[in-house]
Amino acid sequence: MTEAIKDVAVLPVLPLKNTVLFPHLFMPLAVGRPHSLAAIEQVLTTEDKTFVVVAQRNAEDNEPGFEGLHSVGTRAVIKKMARSENGIELIVQGIERVTLLKEEQTQPFLKARIRPLPMPDDTGTELEALQPAVVELAARAVHLMQVETPVNLQQLILQAGDPLRLAYMLGSMLSLEVAKEQALLEAPTRLEALRLLHGYLTHEVQVLELRQQINSQAQNEMSKQQRDFVLRQQMRAIQDELGEKNPEKAEVEELRRRLEEAKLPEAVKKEAERELTRLERMPAAAPDFQVTRTYLDLLLELPWNKTTDDVIDLAKAHEVLDADHYGLKEVKERILEDLAVLKLNPTAKAPILCLVGPPGVGKTSLGQSIAKALGRKFERLSLGGLHDESELRGHRRTYIGAMPGRILQALRRAGVKNPVLMLDEVDKLGRDYRGDPASALLEVLDPAQNGTFRDNYLDLPFDLSKVLFITTANALDTVPRPLLDRMEVLRLSGYSEEEKAQIATRYLLPRQLNETGLKPEDLTIPEETLRHVISRYTREAGVRDLERALGRIARKVTRRFAEGRREPITVRVDDLQEFLGPVRVRPERHRLQLQPGVSTGLAWTEAGGDVLYIEASILKDGRGLRLTGQLGDVMRESARAAQSFVWAHAEALGIDPELFKHAGLHVHVPAGAVPKDGPSAGVAMVTALASAYTNQPVRSDVAMTGEITLSGLVLPVGGIKEKVLAAQRAGIRHVILPRDNEVDLQELPDKVRQELKFTLADRIEDALQAALPEVGQRLQLAGAHY
Q1: What are 738-747's contacts with CB under 8 Å, separation 24+?
Q2: Catalytic amino acids?
Q3: 483-521 residue pLDDT tens
Q4: pTM for this structure?
């Protein structure tokens, strides 16, 4: 080995980009940069062939100067040299550490003045303890790197002897970063060098252990997949030997058999075959396998050509409708007309009926009766609170968890393409950022469009024209006009007391007896008791509360029989408090005789008709018109129009005109928590104001409805049947109606028309004569022309 220099010397410098040469170690070098080649050519001409190897501070610098090199390097000697196309290949050996003092030459290569940096020779117990720890870590790192070394690592370590040479050798084996290798080279003491190496080794072992753990997990996962694959292949081979088919293949063959048997339309069959061919080529573990299989199941289960034959016997259909529902004459007639059309013209497009009425009048059950009369399957969809358009049209198959819409699902359940499909609560559809379901129904409920209905999931045209759609609603205010235009509205009004008694006797009571396990002879409810239940324990347009009341009576009777009673029970009027508790509906005692300024109006609500009292009071020393009772804009305008009419005809009515100038007026409609609106309270408003200003009470047995104008005309309003039935329930026997509403009286049951007296008003004086005879007569005699 070349001897160490004793003092300062000047030698060529070879910059290294990505590594550090340690003393006593060999290293292969590839020299290709012009400055470096010039330096090596110069070194090769010398006898000792020594030069200085120094790491660059910046590896990207191709021509580093003296300032771009570290201050500590290694004096090296060339041991072997070979020329190549790219430069010179060298094997060099480190001799000793040196310090670069000064730049002596830059061209054609770098020369520097150097001074040897003596090797430290410190000793101590910490050094003795640290050396075996470093050796142990190095062995662990080599083991984790899974590198087969040509020489035993322990022998290399024993040969190193000196702790510093050990540190240099292990540092070169670890392929550390240049900065870490340079720090190890510059370490002033053996202890510092071993400390640095111990830290490097600890970090390297942790990284290698984590890498091995990740590799082990990945290998285990891969091994499991390979094992499962092999087992599946073996299972299939066994099944083939036994003559059994694998499940996936058998499933695909079953789908193909069903496809061949199904008489699908040509376009649908083509799409089904395309999807089935795609499924056959797809592995069972593929994500799209189950998606495609589910799609094919739906496609094959839909009733593309299956229908039920309509058994249209009008006489039998009439019997079915009468057996299931009492009354509803007009609605039944309309349904029988549609059945007659279908009988004479089976290819006619089915109408879309919309049953509108208060809760509990039998809208939903009427749809079941229509299906029963036709001999068709019946399916019902509740649309109440539906916000998402995809619930009706379905989701596209690209989404996870995609499903067909409710329309196709209902047809799939029905199993035929011509069921009776009831869309319940169409007036309660929602609308938000997920779409507008009401707009999605436009295509479904349009006979001109629904022959090629496309569900987003199915994405094939399906014929809905044979479906008999029936929709139900409590009110039409919230139904969009385009949707309403596609439907034929049939109104189901509330029932009279007579009709309720018949419904209770024919349907409700037998049903409750059957549900509670009683025999018909065990419980008897006389007609007088039944009418008392209707008038004193329920106030509704339908019959749901009535059925609940009969159910309570039946359950209490059932309990008595369960406790050992044997004799039949007859429920009298006096027994009702025991069965149903205190009376819930009482006639307003204070309304038996109306005070001046109070009139009885009639209102329509979603739950049927109702009686509405209007109160007017003169405020002495007050000013203007005050309105209370949560009145809407239209009703407020009716009150102002009524005041203007009375003021304009004050002299004819016998009212001092000065009273309007020096006194205020307060109009109040009780039940202030309930919003009220509409024009039909106009006549009642005029009557209340005329009564208040003349101090004459309105007849307490008279109720009225109708819109008024400033010229005194009484205009027609809607909901006449519901309003008249509400008046009958309230015990009123005289009703004032606009003359143009006379045709609506035909909808009333005969018994109601016989019980009540009707006054048909063309002008306001006709109404006032019936409600305020003296005031109306006075206005009539005045002969005022409005």
Answers
A1: 738/705, 738/706, 738/707, 738/714, 738/762, 739/714, 740/715, 740/716, 741/706, 741/716, 741/717, 744/720, 745/720, 747/330, 747/493, 747/720, 747/721
A2: 680, 723
A3: 888 888 888 877 777 788 888 888 888 888 888 888 888
A4: 0.59
